[in-house]
Amino acid sequence: MSMTLKENALAIYNGQQPDFYGDLMNAVELIGDPILMGDMPPQDGLEHADSWGTVYVYKPGAPGPHPHVTPENAVIKDIENWESQLRVPSLDQYDWSMARAQAAAVDRNEKFVGFFCAGGLFERSHHLMGMENALVNYMEYPEEMAALLRVIADYKIKLIRLAAEQFHPDIIFYHDDWGSKQNVFLPPSVWRKIIKPLQKEIADTIHECGMIYMHHADCICEPIVTDMVEIGVDIWQGVIAQNDIVKIQRVTDGKLAMVGGIDGPKVDIANIAEEAIRSEVRRAIDTYCPGGRFYPSIPNGICFLEWNNSIVMDELTAYGRRYALEHPI
After folding, report:
1. What total of structural domains would you count in the chain?
2. Residue 1, domain member (yes or no)
3. For this protein, what is any one GO molecular function term (predicted)?
């Protein structure tokens, strides 16, 4: 009898024999909560402020909205006076009935119910003041940034508990990009001092509520992966191939399940040969699946070029099943 998507994902998560190796996200049904949906701007290319006051622009055809923070519209213009400039939105006025209905419609034997918890500590901080100012402030005003992040963390913890009460997700899909394709954004010592303790509180909250903590960061996180384990990250989703994934599997001693490994930008280009795309998918599976607890996928989810994406998915489906059959645990 073949496994359900959830059973197959759990087999990989638990280091057991799966039917196939593939993207964990196929087994997750993300629920549209009222906070996220209320903050989503229309795809009209115009400026719209979210509940925190951050201005976003969602251009037609773009994969998602992006913050458009300027010196004029930044919520926090002076980090030394951030308390007088920031208004933390209330979480008490939202109607969760649609989210509850969506979650109730999911067959939890077939799929996980996921809560997309966007705008983590680092991302929210630079969305409030702009990336350049945030990076400078982390270095020159660490106490003020730590106090600001304390407030943001309290909001996130309350939101996670609220989601747990309303529809009890199986997985919290927490989003916070901590780096670029080249390196982490902050010196690890700064990240460890300011972000790590608060992130552990968030992880502890997720686990206290009986949920899995899956952290999305499609970037370099290699310098802080052992810290991610210490925090309590269960799954790192978005692992780009620019990380030394085999080394990470070794230094984390199999304690960090990972999703990604296929170099999306390498294959999401025009005029690429079909075999080059299939070869990259096989490379990822052959290289990272032997380390265990690995879900091969495109870190950001899909190729944006439709034909390229269809080849990736076809090869992932076929070779991911073949690999599982030929390499039993």
Report:
1. 1
2. no
3. uroporphyrinogen decarboxylase activity
In which element (H, E) is residue 108 found?
Answer: none
- CA–centroid distance for 204 within its chain: 17
Q: Which tokens sit at 326?
A: 């030929």
What single string gives the DSSP state of each residue in 247-284? HHHHHTTT-SEEEEES-HHHHSSTT--HHHHHHHHHHH
* CATH code of the domain covering residue 105: 3.20.20.210
- Cα 190 to chain centroid, rounded: 21
pLDDT in tens, the chain (329 residues): 799 999 999 999 999 999 999 999 999 999 989 999 999 999 999 999 999 999 999 999 998 999 999 999 999 999 999 999 999 999 999 999 999 999 999 999 999 999 999 999 999 999 999 999 999 999 999 999 999 999 999 999 999 999 999 999 999 999 999 999 999 999 999 999 999 999 999 999 999 999 999 999 999 999 999 999 999 999 999 999 999 999 999 999 999 999 999 999 999 999 999 999 999 999 999 999 999 999 999 999 999 999 999 999 999 999 999 999 999 99
Annotate 286-315 with b (16+ C-beta within 10 A) or e (fewer).
eebbebebbbbbbbbbbbeeeebbebbbeb
Backbone angles phi, psi at 302, to 5 degrees: -145, 165
Strand, helix or coil at 46? coil
pTM of the predicted model, to two decimals? Answer: 0.97
* CA distance linking residue 229 with residue 212, whole number of Å: 13
- At 252 the three-state DSSP class reads coil
Q: Which domain holds residue 50?
A: 32-220
- The verdict on residue 229 lying in a domain is no
Quick check: 32 and 48 in contact, CB under 8 A?
no
109 lies in some domain: yes
Please indicate, yes or no, if residue 98 is contained in any of the structural domains: yes
In this structure, are residues 91 and 155 in contact, taking their beta carbons and an 8 Å threshold?
yes
| Radius of gyration over every alpha carbon of the chain, rounded to an integer in angstroms | 20
